[in-house]
Amino acid sequence: MRIAIDSGGTFTDCLFIRANKLQIIKVPSHPNVPAVAIAEAVRLAIEKESEHTNLDLVCGTTVGTNALLEHRGGRVALVTTAGFEDVLEIGRQARFKLYDLFVRKIEPLSSLRFGVKERIAADGSIVQALEKKEIARILRKIKKAQPDSMALCFLFSFRNEAHEKQIAGALRAANYSVSVSHELLPEYREYERTSTTVINAYLVPVMSGYLRDTTLCIAALTRADTQRKSKIKQTDNLSSSSVRIMQSNGGMISAEHAAREPVRTILSGPAGGVIGAAHAAKLAGIDKCISFDMGGTSTDVALLTKELHTTSEAMIAGFPVAVPMLEIHTVGAGGGSIARFDEGGALRVGPHSAGSAPGPICYGRGTKPTVTDAHAVLGHLGNAGLLGGTFPLDIVRARDYMQREITYKLKIAGGSFRSVETFAEGIIAVANAVMEKAIRVISIERGHDPRDYTLIAFGGAGGLHACDLATALDMRAVLVPLFPGGLSALGILRADVVKELSRTVLLAADEVIRSPNKLSAMLRALQREGTRVLRAEGFESNKTRFRHSLDMRYRGQAYELNVAASGNIVAAFHRAHEIRYGYHNPNQQVEIVNIRCRSTGITEKPPQARLATRKQSDRAASTQTLQLVFNGRPQKARLYLRDDLRARDIFSGPAVVAEYSATTLVPPGWKARVDVYGQIILSRASR
Predict the structure, then answer these.
(1) Do residues 380 and 656 touch, judged by C-beta distance below 8 A?
(2) Distance separating alpha carbons of residues 356 and 370, to the nearest angstrom
(3) Has residue 239 got a pLDDT over 50?
(4) Alpha helices of 350-461 — where are they, by DSSP H?
(5) How far is CA 66 from the centre of its chain?
(6) Of residues 677, 634, 670, the one with CA closest to residue 463
(7) pTM summary value
């Protein structure tokens, strides 16, 4: 039984297949111990199974992201070439907030740094050999420092890894957890390579603990389920192959591999959402779209075309991360984002979130107004609560605490909102402004016109804001996929197993064209390594795919563009340069910096059923009339239940579409139609 889990800040989503049909369960998250919510979701998923079930669990997690943001990682010791211990301090010498006079530099993740007397030249030759007595000296220093984890990054180890192997072997023999740069990222750029290796070491203790807790919880749950259903013997622990983790690049990785290389999982949850959005766009026949994932804590946006785009130049929590990851932009605006008044009396929303504990006011425990509370008092969430009515909302309590907030604001800053409704609409307007800016970052600021794109809205709160954002950006339409509140979990369930491999080569393109065998041999070597990894994951050759690409640049440039490693690579680079920068120079020498191989193991995909068309004898999908507030005015709106909708149904706003995992708001002047897969396409009535 394949089960996909997406651990969010407010809810943990569980998607699984029962009776050849996709089903979803949402449970409140436990931010401090995510495994508790995961075990609860899995328990609910398997308790209705009549026979003992072997589990194949795939997870998306924010454990790595949160550990970085909150500086909750392990105590890391960095071992590097003598004289280069301060690489993390020096960085790129760039001021990341140019006009902020009070900006404070982010402290490096490793304060323990040890220099080793060794030196390898840029061509890979050994300038100063690494001696045994030097290894012994470093081991003594490390033993005295007692770090939780080790990061090992020598100068030019991407050319010659001999010295890193020697030190790594000695450290591992002494039972230290070691992250080694040539194993993780054999590419040039010393600062980025060191930063990535240190981040990996920083996250190893956290991710290892998370995976251990998850595996033990699931194993105990499976044993109990087995004893309840049958006499089949169950082993004490699930093997690591039974649990896989989503990577930031949109592919799965084994739990064992994720524990060793957690830096690859930093954008694990959001990556699942992008995979799910790409699938929804394909079903709808849409080539250009922007994914809009609004959860309880944050909003993630990404620009999608026919292919998913990755980058190796990401910055997470102010630190460079050079492993490939999907191009996702995140802002602190979600359903649980807290509204407050700043010192000048201006209304602010986020980035702090009420999360699952205490949660929004209307959940019954929170006391600070949130975006969810704003929608609740405006009637946008219907009147039956969330999760199919099993999660009731206290609207009266929300109104009471929001009234207190605006009364308090009147006392300290003067002025006031006319009513709770105008306060609620102000909260939504501010949240929309934050999210609109995020969409502009990935579209307009990168040369893409949002008017050519469709907005794919998902997450528990995405459908509540999508039409407002599409109106502000004059976008074509809005697509609300199936299971919008669990689309990240669906993406995780559909994801393939992926291993990204790379190596710095620094070859002149002309040389490669004259002697192509040299480059081909290097690419084959990467593919052999990818084949070995996928075979260990259980994939035969007929279930594997390989994509080779090259990072290329004009000689003298500082950064590269990635092109496919096939056909006329120089012409392809010129075209890519023209698209990105508006010009190309056919007379300038081109060089290949890095070679890459994306090795993919194709997994079984869940079924995709078509939705039945409504018959005349079927009852109408609309169940009742609601009283909603739009632009300060109360209006009547129809309530539709998503499960009652049929293919080719058409209805107009104002309306609310309620379902187990999310709520969709159709404002006045918008119309909705349902496609053959049950997805809702929203467009303005005037178009």
Answers:
(1) yes
(2) 12
(3) no
(4) 371-377, 395-413, 420-442
(5) 12
(6) 670
(7) 0.88
